[in-house]
Amino acid sequence: MSRYLATLTGALFAALFVLFIDAGWGLPIEMFRERAMVLSLCVIPVGWLSGLLAMRLSLPGLSASLLGFGVALLPTYLVVALLVIAVGFLLRNRLPASMAGVGKLCKALGVVVHILPLVVYFGVPHSLDSTPRVVEPELPAAAVEQKMGQGPDVVLVIIDTLRADAILEDAVPTPHIDALRNRGVWASYAVAPANQTLPSHLSILCGLDIEKIGMRGNPSPWPQGAQLREAWGMQTLAERFYDGGWRTAAVASNTLLSRVDESKGYQGYRDGFELWNGMERDDPWKGYLKWSQNCTWLGWFLPKTLGWHKYSAFVLSHIAGDKSVRGLRFHKNEGVFTTDASVRYIQQLTQGERPYFFLAQYLDPHTPYMPDDAVRGTLSKEELRPAGFDTSESSEMSMRLAFREGLHAMIDAGEVMMNGSTLSLATWLHHLYREEIMALDTQLGRLFGAIEKGGRPTIVLFTSDH
After folding, report:
1. Most buried residue among 27, 42, 212, 333 by CB atoms closer than 10 A?
2. What is the pLDDT at residue 410?
3. Residues forming beta bridges with residue 157, ordered by sequence position
4. CATH architecture for residues 153-281+328-464
């Protein structure tokens, strides 16, 4: 009976441990969510299987150590635990009573096997941390052969999916955008090159009308760079600045701009930029997968042709949660990350003698709408929340999907006015969108402040892609 109680206690301990780690963390930025996720994957099946097998082999001490401290992180864990059990079983049947101490040593080894994952849990490489971002590229030194430009610094700020009416209405305070508009020249009316991100940005950065680029939307066939240059004499905006003696750098938080397959000759966005920081991100569990493939027994001894990592990736991605919800982590504090990188590069460029051309491309206030806590609730009052939806990330993702389905239903029914739940969803999402603009304005204040602090003559161009 004591063995069964030990098994139950170990399993409950493991379950509570995992629950304690996972509970209420939401969308962590600097926490060990992926490590906890791997624990969730390993601890229950490994603890139960190893513990039950140890009991079956009449090794109650090893069973207690396996289940009493059943914290598993390494893929190596199950292999090591089974080897310890096998060795204990063989020694129990073959060694005389005078060597019973070997059994105790085996039991101690079982405990060590379980302490080791704890050490790893707090000391593994930071590729397991849940910040979904790679190391940012460093600004290269200025080319000696580049001529010295004569003119002011130029900063182009492109805000993804920013509507003009949103920054002109009194309900949305945007003091930094307002100050920029009051100090400069602005147009009360403009037409975007296209209503989607990729063709519109390509038109802006290549200086060609959308008809010459030949793209109607993001899924359109991609234009060949050589064809654009030959047919229209295209030279990108960044190339013109670089040839004129300006340093060129860009931070683009919409990762679609960094995914053009230029190896096939497609015209991308990087041409002419000495530095392009595409804010590339990746799921941290992929770092764990790569690490386990290179540093554990599974990676050392299993033939790569078996493709075990593909199955592991499938399992890990699903245990990490719904794919659409996991994607939200990439957008948490996105404006802050974009501004941090932009300010750092501008400070470095300001230290040089040459003028610079800098592109700061913000994905906010594009969906998903995740306004900072400082402004959240300013417009999206809790009493306005649509019925049937709570404050969880998955619920707010479902809210957008429900709104889209409502619009499709309206179109199918030939209706022209929103009503009922569809109107309620639209109103709520519009509030979140405007709160994102408020948060964005704060980040733009930081960016403009860094430019002014440089003390150099600067032209700031502010626009949106659509």
Report:
1. 42
2. 79
3. 360, 462
4. 3-Layer(aba) Sandwich (3.40)
